[in-house]
Amino acid sequence: MRFLGPRSISSLLKTALDVVYYGLYSLIAVVVALSVCLLSVPNLASEAVRRFNVDASLSAGSMAFMLMAFGASLAGYLLITHWTRRIFRTLAEGDVFHPDNTIRLRWIGFGLGALEVFGYLARGVAAGVFHLHFEPIYGLRAVTTWFAVLVVFVLAEVFKEGARLRQEVDHTI
Amino acid sequence: MIRLKLAEVLARKRLSIVELSDRTGISVRDLEVLRDQKALALRLRTLECLCRSLGCQPGDLIEYVMDEE
């Protein structure tokens, strides 16, 4: 099975990404609805505590705040999935070095970096304000995301060069 | 910059782009790119084909023009 063009692996992956994309949308809707419920009906908090394994001493407002933060990180993943889908759409069309893919890859890189920083901040706030404890991440796992960000930015430059070469070929008679 | 003088040569020879396309086998779209100075590169094979079809020298088709800046 070929990798590019219609009915290829890219096309299959794009369909899988579509499923993830709409799944994330649903999940964000559920998280937002849940946090609104927590704010409007504080009695629901005890149920939520049991489901999400969050410190029982937290108030409904605090839990709603944390759920909102979780929703915000999911929104970040949604954006990254959106840009990845757009890239895969060009791959499925067989148009690899599309000029827009460079910008999309850069946004994916920025998105991954921002999500990682957001994760640090969220863990810091949760530990400092809500006194929650998280398993510390050691070794290579701690820098995996930053390696991914680096690779994505390098890939963006490769795509930029590819787009330039393609334009040159298109204008070579 | 290098300027292609295809439009002038075609006018002198009273030929249309379509007729040149028929003679050379180069597509009308590619000839329009050449005529409109949009080409970034010109293959020697294409230049040879144009010279043969138009009965001219490469110097009749391309010229160097000093950039104004």
Number of helices of chain A: 5
| Largest interface, Cβ cutoff 8 Å | A-B, 5 and 12 residues
| Strand residue percentage of chain A | under 5%
The run of helices and strands of chain A is HHHHH
Strand content of chain B: 5-15%
- Could you list the spans of chain B in which at least 5 consecutive residues all have pLDDT below 50? none
Termini of chain B, distance in Å? 11 Å
What do these coordinates show?
The complex is a heterodimer of chains A (173) and B (69). Chain A has 173 residues and is an all-alpha fold. In chain A, 78% of the residues lie in helices and 0% in strands. Chain A has helices spanning 9-40, 44-52, 60-92, 99-128, 140-170. In chain A, helix 1 packs antiparallel against helix 3 (60-92). Chain B contains 5 helices and 2 strands, in the order βαααααβ. Chain B has helices spanning 6-13, 17-24, 28-35, 44-54, 58-61, and strands at 2-4, 62-64. In chain B, strands 1-2 form a two-stranded antiparallel sheet. The A-B interface holds A 167-168, 171-173 and B 26, 30-31, 33-34, 38-43, 46.
How are the secondary structure elements laid out?
The complex is a heterodimer of chains A (173) and B (69).
Chain A (H helix, E strand, L loop, with lengths): L8 H32 L3 H9 L7 H33 L6 H30 L11 H31 L3
Helix pairs in contact in A: 1-3, 3-4, 4-5
Chain B lengths: L1 E3 L1 H8 L3 H8 L3 H8 L8 H11 L3 H4 E3 L5
Antiparallel strand pairs in B: 1-2
